[in-house]
Write a structure and sequence with these properties.
The chain is of the alpha/beta class and 509 residues long. It contains ten helices and 24 strands. The protein binds alpha-L-arabinofuranose.
Amino acid sequence: MARLAVDRAFVVGEVDRRLFGSFVEHMGRCVYTGIYEPGHAAADPDGFREDVLELVRELGVTAIRYPGGNFVSNYQWEDGVGPKDGRPRRLDLAWRAIEPNQFGTDEFVAWSHKAGVEPIWAVNLGTRGITEAVQLLEYCNLPAGTELPDRRVRNGSKEPHAIKVWCLGNEMDGPWQIGHKTASEYARLAEETANAMRRVDPGIELVACGSSNAAMPTFGDWERIVLERTYDLVDHISLHAYYEPKKQGKEGKQGEGEADQASFLGSAEGMDRFIDSVVATADHVKALKRSDKEITLSFDEWNVWRQQEFPGELGLEVREVSPLIEDVYTVDDAVVVGSLLITLLRHADRVKIACLAQLVNVIAPIRTEPDGRAWRQTIFHPFALTAKYAGSTVLRTEVSGPEVETAQYGRIAALWSTATYEESTGELAVFVVNRSESETVDFEVPVFAGHQLVEHLALYDDDRGAVNTADEPDRVIPRRIADTTVADGICTATLPPASWHLIRFAPIS
Ligand code: AHR
């Protein structure tokens, strides 16, 4: 019997609600025929798809990063404001696609209000620099009275957009990035841009680019060099990571053979170690600077993405808006996404922002057909339930139980867990994943005094490859587990192989 230890006194940290963020990039069909499709039967007068907005609200997303991603590194924000018939069609170099610029800054802010999310903005530090970042911030955040805010007012937004969080570029360490830079080049530009942006609006939060992933050759050094220059000017350092069932046996993009599903189910281990390393690097710079300030983390791109199946940007034909990386998610993918959310919560003391990349169609929890239906992918469900039921405070958990062997991470605990306590209601939520592919685990949780079991929800399936489609949108949905019991203050549940669980307790009223 595996046993979870949890105590009200062992607090990890408060949950910043921006942990349940997502990401909208001008890429593939995320914007066009995703969130925006004038002429669609469900489109509102602004062209925003109401069916998608409803799903976004149900997903419980709190904050959304925009407009990229790699796209931002060659984006001219001025193209996307003002009368739509005057906006240029332009070649986007990141995804070799024609950008029609019918959706831009003011549309995204208006859409965010309807979706009930906080917009997070990225500025172009690839092909552009300090001037353009400052001008965009002026356009968005200053009251009328000077040229750029006046232009915003003329474009229909009297009140400032009041965007709080700004990302200083995107993945600037990546050779694929337009305007890619060395750590020192980026650090200087980020420092000067941050300094200038703070003079426009001292109230903003700034995110410096960290590494594109933990396997980058510059990982570690990049964060150190960037933070040594920007420590006093920025609030967060970014992390990006995508996980997939890697096919072994061949170097390069196209994997062959059997996918390593055991390591894939252990992906949370990779995310956990990545976060620990970035925290250590940030704190190393803190020590060097004898600073009292603590840099927090913005995990502003994370998800499951079968990158081995992606031909790479240069493999793409120049084309109009068309599908790109529309991964169809399985039950196992949903279990992994659930386990990654557990990891983010376990680091709630340092991770303050996290964005599931992306929101619609492009590696996304929500899928749409152009001129057609919208539906929830499997990964929608653990995200929505975690966003809905994670309480205000994360409590440390320890689990005894079986272990599993993985090629990528070595021997790891089969069960991966966290718990949250909601101060306003006294509710306790236990999140746990069984990462074993073969073992059903009997699991015990001590019930807090005066509490009772509310429900046990789980996501698993005999067919771990099952997916949701437009025709069968509810093939994979969470199930309510009726045979979870409480006796003598102990809750006992059964956790099947490769499964995600949420067990909720509340004070007896
Ligand atoms: O989310 C897809 C892409 O992945 C983003 O544009 C980029 O930042 C990352 O490499």
